[in-house]
Specification:
Oligomer: single chain
Number of helices: 16
Order of helices and strands: EEEHEHHHEEHEEHEHEEHHEHHHHHHHEE
Structural class: alpha/beta
Helix content: 40-55%
Distance between the termini: 41 Å
Largest sheet: 4 strands, parallel
Length: 467
């Protein structure tokens, strides 16, 4: 199958071909861990989770690396403000992030490196840049000399003025050029630091990713991803320093950038204060509903986010209802298709994802499958369509629960009404209706509704779900 991806470097869609036949290397910029992750942080995590699932249909070996930035000025500021060591902050919020995106159905990466575990590799890269004339030491700092790289600016395609504004760099007197950026900076006693040839200090943000990529994936990788807000300065600087260490050879073959979530007043950002955390949303919504909402927009598009997730809930209900209508007693979920052969997956869903990860089109194909399954007129057709629906669910990371768990909430909180109690009350209601005691029947419905149980009367009888 042909996979096309929009390459930020070229500005157009390109047919994806890995550098090494049969093998794919992919790196995603992960979070800076100093607080709970907001729902905007989930966009790249979910989008690249779908991409990795798709790539594994076609290629025998896909190595996915997603990093943790656990040393950074924001973490340092949070540590000083709270009086807690940055290691403690990093450990806590890295775990919170992992838990949050796992609740969204995101599969863990093959490698999840942390910046603080790669100080020797960072120092080695900086020494190589100095030796090549691309970096210099000045007053305890080591800076990358931007004019030494003739290709600087080709990723973000920005003017000199935009570069200076976007980088938000300090135009310090020791810089040879205003655009030069920090590779290593000195640390005062209260800040974290490591010994280096330039004194006790800590790495700059950009060099961390370059060193982790080189360590775990090699000097040239297939795909590098992240939010569009990282294109400049982070990815531009990362690209420049890695290219210079490579003797001019680009370190990334396909740059992929996802769009931003907005709250109607600009991108969602902790610094702006217009955020809603994944953790907050999970307290009110199922993680699969949040994932569906994120997939409902194309990964490169700006997605307007609000807390009205009714459409995502309703759409997901429709897909699960198709599984319930075609239930064969197998209790299968999408996870059953994790290692299925390529031909087990619905072609329309695969084609949509191969088209620059068009998840809205893929979801539309899933709903078409659900409709076909309901209309199928033979047991064989029903089984085949149900299997395709579940296989498509695996690619998208949805339909992960048994139908009974999704609708009945088996295993929910201890004070929730048990399924056998609900079924017994429904039987009492049916008996009341048979006896034309509609007041009693309505009272039972109201009692169940007060307990979070919604009844659905149909030709097949009365079904129920937790709401």
């Amino acid at each position: 199958m042909d996979i096309t991806l929009h390459n930020t470097q070229s500005g157009k869609r390109e047919r994806f071909e890995p550098l090494v036949p049969g093998e794919v290397s992919i790196y995603l910029c992960g979070p800076t861990v100093y607080d709970f992750a907001h729902i905007g942080n989930a966009v790249p995590a979910v989008a690249f989770d779908v991409l990795v699932r798709l790539l594994r249909l076609e290629y025998p070996k896909v190595t996915f690396v997603r990093n943790i930035t656990d040393v950074d000025d924001k973490i340092n500021a949070a540590g000083i403000a709270t009086g807690r060591p940055i290691r403690e902050l990093g450990e806590r919020y890295a775990k919170e992030y992992q838990d949050d995106i796992a609740a969204l159905g995101v599969i863990p990466p093959d490698v999840e490196p942390r910046a603080t575990g790669h100080i020797p590799e960072i120092v080695d890269m900086i020494e190589t840049l100095i030796a090549g004339g691309h970096a210099y030491e000045a007053e305890g700092h080591v800076l990358f000399h931007v004019p030494s790289d003739p290709d600087y600016g080709t990723l973000a395609k920005r003017s000199l003025e935009d570069m200076l504004d976007g980088a938000r760099v300090e135009v310090a007197p020791y810089k040879r050029d205003p655009k030069d950026f920090v590779l290593w900076k000195p640390s005062t006693p209260e800040l974290p630091g490591w010994e280096s040839p330039w004194g006790r200090g800590r790495p700059g943000w950009h060099i961390e990713c370059s060193a982790m990529i080189r360590k775990h994936l090699g000097p040239v990788i297939d795909i590098h991803g992240g939010g569009s807000d990282l294109t400049f300065p982070h990815h531009e600087n990362e690209s420049a320093q890695s290219r210079c260490v490579n003797g001019g050879t680009p370190s990334v073959r396909y740059w992929l950038h996802n769009g931003m979530l907005t709250m109607g007043t600009g991108k969602m950002s902790k610094s702006v204060g217009n955020i809603v955390t994944i953790r907050e949303l999970l307290s009110r919504h199922d993680g699969e509903v949040l994932r569906y909402a994120l997939l409902s927009g194309h990964y490169r598009a700006q997605l307007m986010w609000n807390e009205s997730l009714a459409q995502a809930q309703s759409s997901l209900d429709t897909l699960y209802q198709a599984l319930r209508d075609t239930d064969d007693g197998s209790n299968e979920t999408a996870a059953s298709y994790a290692n299925a052969d390529t031909d087990a997956f619905p072609s329309d869903v695969v084609v949509a994802l191969c088209n620059d990860l068009n998840t809205p089109q893929a979801l539309a194909a899933m709903h078409a499958l659900a409709s076909q399954a309901r209309r199928a007129d033979s047991p064989e057709s029903v089984r085949a369509l149900r299997a395709k629906l579940l296989a498509g669910g695996w690619l998208l990371g949805i339909l992960t629960k048994p139908v009974a768990v999704y609708f009945h909430g088996v295993g929910e909180s201890a004070d929730a009404m048990a399924p056998d109690v609900v079924e017994a009350r429904i039987e009492e209601r049916n008996a009341a209706r048979e006896a034309k005691d509609f007041a009693r029947a309505d009272a039972i419905r109201d009692e169940l509704a007060a307990g979070g149980i919604q009844l659905e009367d149909g030709r097949a009888g009365t079904r129920w779900r937790r709401v």
